[in-house]
Amino acid sequence: MAKKVIVITGPTGVGKTTVAKYLEQQWHMARVITHTTRTPRADEKNGRDYYFETSDSFNKNHYLESVIYAGAQYGSSLEGLDRAWQKSEIVTIVLDTAGAITYAQKLADKVLILYISVSDSNVLRQRLAKRGDHPEQQQHRLQSTEYLRDLTLPPELVGRATLINNDNWHKTQEMLQEFMILCGIIK
């Protein structure tokens, strides 16, 4: 199979990282590690969850895409994508919808897109509180234009993205299995 990147996108708190970890564990996919200037959460480790950068070090990388989200810089480097592809031909990356659009435009047929959603956006607030973000950071994120933008599938991804509702984890796993079969990644 040719090299592919599964882009997992949707609003913050929807379970994008959980979906990515499941795909990585279930089908032994490498993850593209992205860069950010935000402060690490208590359980996050540099080089495993993100490359945690300063503003200066962030600007020294070569990015396929980068955005400012809730006041912090995020980006995926070309080198990070190549490192992931050296580990497996199918890799995953978690991006906001703007990043997903960029990947779709720049990498064309190498990109498979999953848009993750939930039925009730109040669930997102609850999930943010559970994962340990500082209440001030949660509020800032929930009021950001990026968060509001990511609550709906952008027109540029309509017909391109596979939509998965993550209200029920067991059903989400079943939908991911179907996605993998439809994409020809598994039989």
What does this structure look like?
- This is Guanylate kinase.
- Pfam families: Guanylate_kin.
- Essential for recycling GMP and indirectly, cGMP.
- The two termini are 13 Å apart.
- By secondary structure, the chain is α/β, with parallel strands linked by helices.
- The chain has helices at residues 16-27, 55-58, 78-87, 97-107, 122-130, 135-142, 145-150, 169-182; strands spanning 4-9, 30-31, 35-36, 51-52, 63-69, 72-77, 90-94, 111-117, 161-165.
User: Largest sheet, order of strands side by side?
Assistant: 2-7-1-8-9
CATH superfamily: P-loop containing nucleotide triphosphate hydrolases
CATH class category name? Alpha Beta
Q: Would you list the SSEs in sequence order as H and E?
A: EHEEEHEEHEHEHHHEH
Gross morphology: globular
**Helix-strand category:** alpha/beta
Q: What percent of residues adopt helix (DSSP H or I)?
A: 25-40%
CATH architecture: 3-Layer(aba) Sandwich
**How many distinct helices?**
8
The overall average pLDDT, rounded, is 89
Question: Alpha-carbon distance between the termini?
Answer: 13 Å
Radius of gyration: 16 Å
Number of domains: 1
CATH fold call: Rossmann fold
Count of DSSP E strands?
A: 9
Percent range for β-strand residues: 15-25%
Tell me about the largest β-sheet. 5 strands, parallel
Low-pLDDT sequence parts: none
InterPro entries: GK/Ca_channel_bsu (IPR008145), Guanylate_kin-like_dom (IPR008144), P-loop_NTPase (IPR027417)
GO molecular function, one term: GMP kinase activity
Catalytic activity: GMP + ATP = GDP + ADP
Protein name: Guanylate kinase
